[in-house]
Each structure stands twice: as C-alpha cells, then as structure tokens.
Amino acid sequence: MSETVGHDFGHLPPVAAGLGHVFARPKALAGLCVVLLAALGWAYLGLLLAGTDGYFGKFGLLQALCSPMQDTPWSLRGGAVIASMWYAMTLAMMLPSAAPMILIYAEIADTAARKAERIVSPFALTAGYAAVWIGFSVVAAVTQISFMRTELLDAGMTSTSGLFSGAIFIVAGAYQFTALKHACLTQCQQPFPFFFTNWATTWAGVFRLGLKQGSYCLGCCWALMLVMFAVGLMNVIWMAALGVVMTGEKMLAGRRFTYAIGTVLIVLGAGIVLASFAAHWPMRTT
Description:
76% helix, mainly alpha, single chain
C-alpha cells in the first residue's frame, strides 16, 4: 500500500498521464479525499432530510430508510439508520476541520516521496481518523435512541425540554474551558510535531496515526457535537455553524476563540433554562 512519486508517465496517453501525476501526489490525493467524503456526508444528510420531510416519499428505498426514525427508532433497522445519519454528520462536520491535519501529513509525505522514500497514501490516515468517528456515531445513535425512548427527543429528533437543551449548551460551553479540551485542541492545532515524532511507513502504522489524531479530535469536539441534541439533529444551519466553529478552533492559535465560544454557549444555555422556567412559572397564585 506504500507509494513513491517521481514516476515516468511519458509513455501513457495525455489523459492517463495527467491522472497518473495527480494520483502520485499525496497532497492532491488528500485534498480530493476530504472534499469527496465531506460532500458524500452532506449529500446523504440531504437525502435523509428530504425523505423525512416526505419530498421523496414515492421512492421506496428512501421511504424505507427514513421510516424507522419516525416509527420505531429502537429497532435494528432504525438504529442502523440513526447510526448512519450520525456518521454522515461527522463526515460533513468533522472532515473539513481535519483537512489541515491531513494536508500537513500529505506535505510531509510529498517531501519524502520526492526523495524516493517509502510513503503511504493519505487514505490510510483518513481511514484511521474516520474509524474513531464511526465509534462515536454508534455511541451517539444509542444515546439518541435512549433520549427518544425517555421522550427527551420527539419523533422529529427535536428536543422536547428546554431544561434538557439548556443543560447541553451549558455542559458544552463549560467543556471549552477544561484542561482536556485544551490538551486535545493543541494536538489538533499542531499536528506537525506529532507526525515528525511518530512517522510511519506502513499502512497499519499510518492507520494508527489516524486513530490517534481522530482520538484527539474526538476529545476536542465531542461536546460541541452534542449540541445537535439541543438544536435538532437535522438542523442543517447548526450543522454548518458548528462545523465552521470546530474548523476555526483548529486553525486559530491561542485560546480566545475557544473561550469566546464557551461563553456564548453558556449564556445561550442559561437563557434557554430561564426561558423554560418562565414558561412554566404560574402567572398568579391563589
């Protein structure tokens, strides 16, 4: 599974030679991988959203996929669909935030490849990273089903309790100030030292690098992902906004942005909790 660059494609037709040069460049492969997988995630979410809203109800496959979420989400089929939805969300939201890390690996691999050194495709790194979020998707799906069974979420995957939503916002905001958040974020912001120290030249070794970087990313972003339980799991606007926030955190140096996001989340959560109390507060006493 390893590869090197510097191959001679002159004997091939122009189109094939062009493709050969592209696929011999790790950085080009990395960029293509991120774009395609993130696009697939958004496309799948779009199909689920459209099917749930009934726009594609005439298509039996989409109707079969979406019906478990509305009827019996704790069935095997319903659980599989919910897990696939969460994984599509992680592809759509997390892969763009991982792009700098993947591209840094590709740049290092590019340099090694020019020296005719043994390298491994960025697909191995991305596969390891994605495996971590597959695990998260399974846990998130089980959690969602539990929330639906306890009626904290309705059939439309929207929170039924202001207190529940507010608590999630507050927890996510508070996590922004923790030492674990900062330790994981530092690894995400500065992947070069990690790759330099742990460089591998086998597929299994690079896959393990992806697992480690995926674990750092999970430690950095899990609380922000849980905000989707509070705002509605198919809320595309919040998906995009949180994706931008998580990408920004990893690209910006320092802690100001992270602290600002934490403060905003805590304020929003406190506001939701107070509004929930106010809505149930008796207008008058007898």
